[in-house]
Amino acid sequence: MAYKVILAETDIHRVLDRIAHQILEKTQGAGDVVLLGIATRGVPLAQRLAERILAFEQQPTPVGTLDITLYRDDLNRHSTRAVGHTELPTGGIDGRRVILVDDVLFSGRTVRAALDALSDLGRPAAVQLAVLVDRGHRQLPIRADYVGKNIPTALAEQVRVLLKETDGTDEVRLTEGTPA
Amino acid sequence: MSYLIRNVSVLGGDPTDLVVRDGLIGGTPTGDEEVIDGTGLIALPGLVDLHTHLREPGREDAETVLTGSRAAALGGFTAVCAMANTTPVADTAGVVEQVWRLGREAGLVDVQPIGAVTVGLAGEQLAELGAMAESAARVRVFSDDGMCVHDPRLMRRALEYVKAFDGVIAQHAEEPRLTQGAQMHEGEVSARLGLTGWPSVAEEAIIARDVLLAEHTGARLHVCHVSTAGSVDIIRQAKARGVRVTAEVTPHHLLLTDEKAGGYDPVYKVNPPLRTQSDVDALRQGLTDGVIDIVATDHAPHAGHDKDCEWAYARPGMLGLETALGIVFSVLGPDWELIADRMSRTPARIAGLAEHGHTPADGAPATFTLFDPQARITVDPGALASLSSNTPYAGMELPGRVVATFLRGVRTAFDGKASQ
Amino acid sequence: MIKHLLSAADLDAPTATLIHDIAAEMATVAGREVKKLPTLRGRTVVNLFYEDSTRTRTSFEVAAKRLSADVVNFSAKGSSVEKGESLKDTAWTLQAMGADAVVIRHPASGAPNRLVNWVHGSVLNAGDGTHEHPTQALLDTYTMRSRLGTVAGLNVAIVGDVLHSRVARSNALLLHTLGAKVTLVGPPTLVPPVFETLTPDVRVGYDIDAVLPEADVVMMLRVQKERMNAAFFPSWHEYSRRYGLDAARVRRLPDHAIVMHPGPMNRGVEIAPDVADSPRSTIVEQVANGVSVRMACLYLLLGGRS
Question: 3-class DSSP state for residue C91?
Answer without folding.
Answer: helix
